[in-house]
Design goal:
This is Preprotein translocase. This protein is an alpha+beta fold. The chain is built from 2 helices and 4 strands, in the order ααββββ. It has one domain: Nuclear Transport Factor 2, Chain: A (Roll), CATH 3.10.450.50.
């Protein structure tokens, strides 16, 4: 998916591919997989952050025949020697027939 050869079949698959993009430092993929309305103009990834583990906590819709879905996850990272986590409930929608990240609804 990172090379643009295939689209994510589900919202969860897209979320996992976006986590992988953070892990390998691929901001271009992150921007391409972001909804056009909420996408920032650029994205800077911190090279000191090393993403180490992903836990999918919950999913709602986001399947092959859905047009919206949410995925709650916890992503673990290390920043230098300090561990950290990010917990988010991400919202996904289909844009032009493909899954894209819209935003998070934890606000």
């Amino acid at each position: 998916m990172h090379r643009g050869e295939a689209d994510a079949p589900t919202a969860e698959a897209l979320m996992r591919s976006r986590y992988a993009a953070f892990a390998v430092g691929d901001p271009d993929y992150l921007l391409r997989s972001w909804h056009s309305r909420t996408r920032p103009p650029r994205l800077h990834l911190d090279p000191a952050q090393r993403w180490t583990r992903l836990e999918v906590l919950d999913t709602d819709r986001g399947g092959l025949f859905d047009s919206t879905g949410t995925v709650q996850f916890r992503a673990h990272y290390r920043d230098g020697r300090e561990p950290g986590t990010v917990t988010e409930r991400s919202r996904f929608v289909r844009e032009d027939g493909r899954w894209v990240y819209l935003d998070d609804d934890l606000g």
